[in-house]
């Protein structure tokens, strides 16, 4: 990102999600006779804890208001706890010693010391982009020395470069890069040098590596001369040297309604990144954090769609353990002016007005908050540092829900009405929590509002959501629970097979009574099912479904019947049988970011000949499809894919193999299937 939003390469995208289809085909406005939306909040289904740097934004050195007290005070009021500097793609042309950015504009009063002063006034931690594109490891190390040794600023987080995959290596060229070799391998090799030089000055700093975001260009692409994708290459070389990875997310979209559906991609997006980290980092994978250091709706960024997207995306990413989410940008400048849901949108990627004009149209006065500013303010009050997110879900695609429990026993619920025309009545059910009977504290941001309103309305179980609105409820428990055991420690999985897994966890600290037993609960959306219980701190779960992703929590129950809060979540995926009458290997052999060519190898590993076969698998998501196939008959119904043999390859003697293939398409993270059946028998996946 440089002065204005830089257009990425045009990549055709397919709308595969049923939720998106409902948005795009139109939904009648809700009426008084419409059945209420059912919302489920389950405190037994624990997710990640909100970090103390979760709500962030970007500062840029072309912004002359970067260091003003008014800007800092507005950011503080919104609860911003992370500030990124010196501004997107400018990070790869900026030289901190001279405060220059050759080829770009540097505004007065935006030097590093001024930025730090503003960050301190805001109460936010800085995250700094070290110049990879036109800088050196020594320049970066000198910056660390100045910041943390000379000035004792204590800057903890340092990114190495910005969007360095945009250096022309994959075709598009917006990021400065003076290296003759622009490959991911060269970036990784230099990243190691930067990390070594910078940590030699201050071993306590955290080093971040640039990665591509799943299902967003150029993720999945292997460029000419490379052996693997950007992410696999960078992590294979530098995983031992980094402390976090950097993602940027500007979701591709068709219109404002479409972009609001993209938050459904978040769990799989972060799952795939963690899977990539685990592949290369081994035992230290859990120590490598994920930061989304640029994010924006990309459409209607100043009006209510931008706010709805911001709140939904921040909450969704924080639920998955992302330690900072940084909006692009504080100030950015006027763009294409349009009318969105009756409000003027200035096409400005800033969350505060720049007070600029385009022709006869002028923005509101400088520093007037746009809608996403208010969304970040709501997120800051909804999920505070140390709060643990818990599962929440609805039965209406136009209404989204998030929830977080607080250490004092309170519960906060965020409800998002993405319907531009109709209000929605909601009925809220709680699992593991009994709300008090009084009217809850309610914060609301409605379409066109210039501030967040706070009051008391509705009940803990019934609320009316205005069109295009954000609503946060803060609920007290009906009865204060004292003496309950603490939550068990972080669970781990071992001995994972196709049908079993051993779950272990650190013991919970007892409360007023001894711990009697532990319960293992599986998350299934916002519903949990108990998989077992034990008096010990380890339990082997059986009868699991092969090739399936499981997320579980552990709860402690004491001898008086008091129940702890849920532990942190554990996610693992079961495998397939070690021995079977068949084996299947699916390979992504050529990927272009929203589609791929796959080869599927089928082997008869049994003792009997096969005379005609039917292969079956299920896509993990609703946005994946088979576009065409060869060497077999391919059909898809929903997410279920059925493949039948042809006369040429239907006969497979014991030990014989056949190879078939297809062209797949995806409009979200491409999680490949891992379980296959052949003539009804579960195969070994290779």
UniProtKB/TrEMBL annotation:
Signal peptide: 1-20
Top-rank taxon, per record: Bacteria
Cited CDD domains: FN3 (cd00063)
Organism phylogeny: Bacteria, Bacillati, Actinomycetota, Actinomycetes, Streptosporangiales
Matches recorded under InterPro entries: CBD2 (IPR001919), CBM2/CBM3_carb-bd_dom_sf (IPR008965), CBM2_carb-bd_dom_sf (IPR012291), FN3_dom (IPR003961), FN3_sf (IPR036116), GH (IPR017853), Glyco_hydro_b (IPR013780), Ig-like_fold (IPR013783)
Identification of the protein by name: Alpha-L-arabinofuranosidase
SUPFAM superfamilies, sorted: (Trans)glycosidases, Carbohydrate-binding domain, Fibronectin type III, Glycosyl hydrolase domain
Ranges for domain CBM2: 575-686
Keywords annotated in UniProt: Carbohydrate metabolism, Glycosidase, Hydrolase, Polysaccharide degradation, Signal
Domain Fibronectin type-III: 487-579
Coiled-coil residue spans: none
PANTHER family named in the record: ALPHA-L-ARABINOFURANOSIDASE C-RELATED (PTHR43576)
